[in-house]
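Input set for joint prediction.
Command: fold jointly, output tokens.
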Amino acid sequence: MLARLRSLARALFRRRNFESEMAEELRLHIDQYAADLMGDGVPPGEARRRARMELGGTNTIEEECRQSRGLNPFDELARQTRYAVRLLRKSPGFTITALLTIAVCMGANITIFAAVDAILLRPLPLANPDRLVLIYNTYPKAGVTRDGSSITNYYERRGKIPALSSISIYRIGTAIVGESRGAMRLPVMQVSPEFFRTVDTPPAFGRAFTDVETSYKTDNVVILSDSYWREHFEADPNVMGRVIRIDTFPKTVVGVLPPGFRFLSSDPEIFLPLASSLEERAANNRHSGGNVTQMVARLAPGFSLAQAQSQIDAQNAHLERGNPRAKMMAEAGFRSLVVPLRADHVASIKPALLLLAAGVLVLMLIAVANLSNLLLVRASSQAKEVAVRKALGATRGAIIRAVLVETVGISLAGSLLSLGVGAAGIRLLRLLGVSRLPMGTTISLDVTVAMASLLGAVLLGLALAVPVIFVHLRHAGDALRSETRSATAGRGTQFFRHAFVVVQVALAFMLLAGSGMLALSLRETLAVSPGFEATHVLTGQVSLVGGKYPGPESGLDFGERLTTMLEHEPGIASVGFSTNVPLSGNSGKSAATVVGHVFQPREAPRGHYSYGTGGDYFKAMGFQLVAGRPLTSEDSRRPQRVCVVDDDFAHYYWPGESALGHKLFMGATAQADNEAFTIVGVVKSVKQAGLTDEAAQGAVYYPYIHRADSNIYISVRALSSPEQLARTLERSVHEIDPELAVSDIRSMEQRIDESLTGRRSPAVLVESFAGIALFLTAIGTYGVLSYAVAQRRREIGVRMALGAQPRQIRNSVGGVTLRLFAAGSLLGIVDAWAMAKSMSAMLFHVTPFSLTVMTAATLAMALIGLAACAIPAWRAARISPSEALSEL
Amino acid sequence: MPKTAEILPGTLDMLILKAVSLKPLHGYGVLLRIRQISGDALHVPQGSLYPALYRLEHQGLIAAEWGQSDNNRRAKYYVLTTAGKRRLREETTGWNRLSTAIASALNATPEEV
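tokens >
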């Protein structure tokens, strides 16, 4: 069997050799035989003639030899392909339309399939990724849906949960890597010792971290990613024991990871041990997750996710018995959820992605309807030719094969073009900022995607062949008569053609309505005010690393020096700093205890956005003061404790009253009286997590000294375009401390813009699908109508000869169009309604059945119908009766 | 010219295998060799020789390589492969059994019945 395949392949791929060698072999035979005959005394001419005669016709022998090699089906295919190519070249209009339709629609499908594959389908590059789970604390009744896991959680659970074979915690962040000159800020990951066992990817060489390395004094080790090792150590195998500086501290290399390691969306260059103090591991820090530390675990063999969940629940219940704040946590709805790692990671974009997948499939259906119609029109005009071939003895099989070669061939050719369109589409996705979405950076045009598109092309070709074959086999018998002489089209094909137009119109309507609703929703979102003056504000993050910043005072000193320095720069109106800024992507909420607030039954304590601020933060960000005064830098230096709250906070605790003068404690418990903060100002609420975030969570702003953090954000209000100030900001930070770097430098407008990626990209994509769909529908309808008019020439001629006015003829063409579009639009309204209901989760302030959108879509379809029938109707009305009748 | 016999259907492949098993041969050589080893009794119809050679090569029973012919022309020489040797052995055994059986059948006398 193998020998035969090899011999066939050799003959196929070296076909020219095969043919010439065969001819040479036969020639040699004739020559030698003739020579032998001449040796026997036969005259030369006669010898050659006899030699040739006895061998027989070389053509027949060659054909039989080819047959022996199994070459015949391939020769037949090549013949039919040549025939199909000849036919397609005779009708370039059809061929180009068909190729472009396939290229564009399949290209759109490739783009979306690549995204679906990368985000939802392709297994994570970790061993047995479907056994990995994420565990996070949630306090839904306090408005905190995700709070990560605490270090305490980790030490309490480690080895105590039978359903989990390995539990790890990690933090994703950045660090300054290298000596002060060539230092760079790189993505890093802090992990607990068994992390690489949990994800089942041990270092390629060297070792993982040990338990000893989880204390602050002894955590001076690193593991390198393969790419960092190659780039900075030239893949030196003796890298173990070398020292690199991370955030200015020397660390010893103990391991290198295998190439291609990435964890979800993060692609860290350096791995550090996640160190903690005994205090951080204590029971009273069980609820201090703060969504910074995450917990990943692997299900033990034979255990299910539900079992892991119930074991975690049972342990939580047991541990919370000793917690004085257990009642409050229970009232906040505290639970630790166990969720599948991947599904959880992509949950936020899955609906949008599925919507896009549906949209792009609809586009493909439109393309199929459109191509079917073009092919049907073509099939009708080929009917005579097919009838002749049948009459000359072509079998059913031969006709079917010819159609298949044509349709599969054209869709394969189109699919090759579509790879280019798909690659362009993936580039468009990048431009839309998709790489910021979960797993977005992994979208690529790879072998899987290419193979899927080729398979899709073959299926498409088969599907397109069906109606054509049907028409050929059914009508070919009487085609010699009916399609040429009879005055009207065969009822069967006409039904098909009209049905395909209606389907196209309905599907295009659906896409159009869907894109309209997404666009409307995006407009509503953009119209939302962030609650502050976002223009002209530049923000950047500075991590106060190195030994120079041991406590809040040193952080405050740095912040104030930087603020003062920047205030004297030209082009800067005001400067402030804070522990976080709105829309930064990290939103820490924590509790505040309001003095005198009596909890109602079933009222849960609330998590509020909490910030430490310094300098002119409120002025720099453009917050609006509602009452009282803003915090100033002096507030960090005064003994009196003061704070500012926002509208939402004030309305919640003192509805209809002024919040000024009231007192609160930071944290979930009341403390000594002198620890209380007096509210001195109220600012308007701002959108903290995103423009569509409508939960009135409340925010408290403390002086920096009381809520310090080693990560600070600098906010600079510029007099004009803020981007120019990026250099000034970096220079000033370097002037104070050359070891520090500014990261995440963005204007607030940019942050708002980026927060909309998840909404904007589906809207833009669906809009382009709708655009393509309308165009295809117009082309398809135009094709069908102009064919119908051409076919009805004689009928129209007769009518005009009998006194019909051009206007009546025009109206009759228009009438057909109108009926088809009305039917299609009606179907489309039903489809669109069904679709809108399924996408209501993605809509913001837009009802699923928007009358505006439906009306607009109907009008647009009417315009498309009008455009499609204008030329055919005009042509029909200009038919001259005498000419049309003389063709009879 | 001695009387020649037509080749029995199905035996051409076997004869070709036998011919090339003695020495690598080109197409015309196969023809001559069969005639020679059959004592000039078997004449291969020239038209069916090449399709048979291509079929046997396709089946992997013989292999072809280009070499020089006696009068210094490029010629395609056929040699027997391992699979071909096995097949020739099987066919020879089968044929011998058959011809013995037929011969003994044809030699039967009334007494033996």
